[in-house]
Write a structure and sequence with these properties.
The chain has one domain: Glycerol-3-phosphate (1)-acyltransferase. Helices cover 46% and strands 14% of the residues. It has 253 residues and is an alpha/beta fold. Helix 2 runs antiparallel to helix 3 and helix 3 crosses helix 4. The chain starts with a helix and ends in a 5-residue tail after the last helix. Strands 1-7-6-2-5-3-4 form a seven-stranded mixed sheet, with helices on both faces.
Length: 253
């Protein structure tokens, strides 16, 4: 519990300390100084995410960043925990706009920084409205930005990976954007899987897979793509665990 209290105090002080920078970024945005605005906000959001993880005692091992080729893409991955947000913001090449639950939009200061990088918030209790929000968010692809969606639609809070809903993939098909799958392993142990009801330090593995091209994809494969991507993520998670076990096994044992 001590770590939880420390983390909350640290986060509040951090956000308050960078408030002048947030106001400056807002002025840049209004003045149309887009390049400078994006450079500052992306750097700050990455720094915030990494500092929040470090304060929680969480380390992140990343594999496969070379698979990101810089094209506007739809990033899709499994969703274990609320801690997935700082992991992807801090370590997935650069912060991408995230389709996130609307409860995050109620957190002062954090919501502003997330909106700065193109995040949108959905009401998951209204499926039709959620799909419309995802479709609108996909317009960022036309502007050269990537979008990140958790196609399970909610946190698994454990090892399981639920069914991948079609909205994330329809967005990619609509804009003919490549799909960039990624796997997250270990975030649920930080809080959701922690019976002591606090923050528990831990290690998270983030694995980025090669992109899947959607342009020219036939209807049959489009229909089955959710399950195909889910299977790829399960396989990547198993492979990354093998790498970690090998790394942690003393030589000669």
């Amino acid at each position: 519990m001590f770590r939880m209290i420390f983390w909350l105090i640290y986060e509040i002080l951090y956000l308050l300390a960078v408030t002048p920078e947030m106001l400056f970024c807002r002025r840049l945005q209004k003045k149309g100084e887009t390049e400078r605005f994006r450079r500052i906000t992306q750097k700050r959001v990455t720094h915030w995410a990494r500092r929040m993880l470090k304060a929680a005692g969480v380390t992140v091992e990343v594999y496969g960043l070379e698979n990101i080729d810089g094209r506007p893409s739809v990033f899709v991955g499994n969703h274990q925990s609320d801690w997935d947000i700082p992991v992807v913001l801090g370590f997935l090449d650069k912060p991408h706009g995230i389709v996130a639950k609307d409860s995050i939009a109620k957190i002062p200061l954090i919501r502003t920084w997330m909106r700065f990088i193109g995040c949108v918030f959905i009401d998951r209790s209204d499926a039709r409205k959620s799909l419309r929000t995802i479709n609108e968010a996909g317009r960022c692809l036309e502007e050269g930005d990537s979008l990140l969606i958790f196609p399970e639609g909610t946190r698994s809070k454990g090892e399981e990976i639920g069914e991948f809903k079609s909205g994330a993939f329809k967005t990619a098909f609509r804009y003919r954007a490549p799909i960039q799958p990624f796997s997250i392993d270990g975030t649920y142990r930080i809080m959701e899987g922690n019976e002591k009801k606090g923050i528990r330090p831990g290690r998270v593995i983030l694995t980025v897979l090669p992109p899947v091209e959607t342009e020219g994809m036939d209807k049959k494969r489009q229909k089955d793509l959710g399950e195909e991507i889910r299977a790829m993520i399960l396989s990547a998670r198993a492979e990354s665990r093998k790498k970690e076990e090998k790394k942690n096994t003393p030589s000669g044992s």
